[in-house]
């Protein structure tokens, strides 16, 4: 585990996307499993929140991309209330990043490209699953997998219309780094038109 006692403070002159990429690269070298795992928080139109762990599948200056069944709970909430929050927590580095902002659908081309990059079994599972819907028996799902597998025998499984992705466009990005005695280091970047306002926060 990283000893954060000697780490420099979070640089306030950094580009938040560059800093994110640097921290992600370090996490890829130190985290034992899924450094791109993140908590995604959504809310219903009535403001009832829900959160789950998913995987980041793309990040650049446009935002942070993830994919899902659009008819799942998170898909439905994002379509009806297009605002979300992400949380990355890397225990090995004793760091976390919080990201908040509106979400927008990725293009059909982006979704097709990512879906095609998944393993065949993962694509078949995505087609067969009514994600978030009640499942009476596990055998029912396994039977659907068999049916879908047979349907696509000899050809590539195609992305279903109800499976796509979202891009969270960051309105605010907060970097947090553990320091001794809970005197942690926190800094937040807030978007202001075409620029960022940055400030350090009390821990």
Key traits:
single chain, 203 residues, alpha+beta, Pnp Oxidase, Chain A, 10-stranded antiparallel sheet, 34% strand, elongated
Provide a quick synopsis of the model.
The chain has 203 residues and is an alpha+beta fold.
Whole-number total of structural domains:
1
Largest sheet: 10 strands, antiparallel
What's the number of extended β-strand segments? 10
Strand content: 25-35%
Structure in words:
The protein is α+β, with helices and mostly antiparallel strands. The protein has one domain: Pnp Oxidase, Chain A. Helix content is 28%, strand content 34%. It contains five helices and ten strands. It has helices at 16-30, 73-80, 108-117, 120-128, 138-151, and strands at residues 37-43, 49-55, 58-60, 63-69, 83-90, 95-105, 163-168, 172-177, 185-192, 195-201. Strands 1, 2, 3, 4, 5, 6, 7, 8, 9 and 10 form a ten-stranded antiparallel beta sheet that branches. A hairpin with a 4-residue loop joins strand 5 and strand 6 (95-105). The longest helix has 15 residues, at 16-30. The radius of gyration is 19 Å and the shape is elongated.
């Amino acid at each position: 585990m990283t000893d954060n006692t000697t780490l420099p403070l979070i640089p306030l002159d950094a580009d938040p996307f560059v800093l994110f990429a640097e921290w992600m690269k370090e996490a890829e070298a130190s985290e034992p499993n899924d450094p791109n795992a993140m908590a995604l928080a959504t809310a219903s139109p009535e403001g009832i929140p829900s959160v789950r762990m998913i995987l980041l599948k793309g990040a650049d200056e446009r935002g942070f991309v993830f994919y899902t069944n659009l008819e799942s709970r998170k898909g439905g909430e994002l379509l009806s209330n297009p605002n979300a929050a992400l949380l990355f927590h890397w225990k090995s580095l004793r760091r976390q990043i919080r990201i908040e902002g509106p979400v927008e659908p990725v293009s059909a081309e982006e979704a097709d490209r990512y879906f095609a990059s998944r393993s065949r079994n993962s694509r078949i599972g995505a087609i067969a699953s009514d994600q978030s819907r009640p499942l009476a028996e596990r055998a029912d799902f396994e039977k659907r997998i068999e049916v879908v597998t047979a349907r696509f025998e000899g050809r590539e499984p195609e992305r279903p219309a109800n499976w796509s992705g979202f891009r969270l466009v960051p309105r605010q990005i907060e970097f947090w780094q553990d320091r001794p005695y809970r005197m942690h280091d926190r800094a937040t970047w807030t978007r202001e038109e075409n620029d960022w306002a940055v400030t350090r926060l009390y821990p």
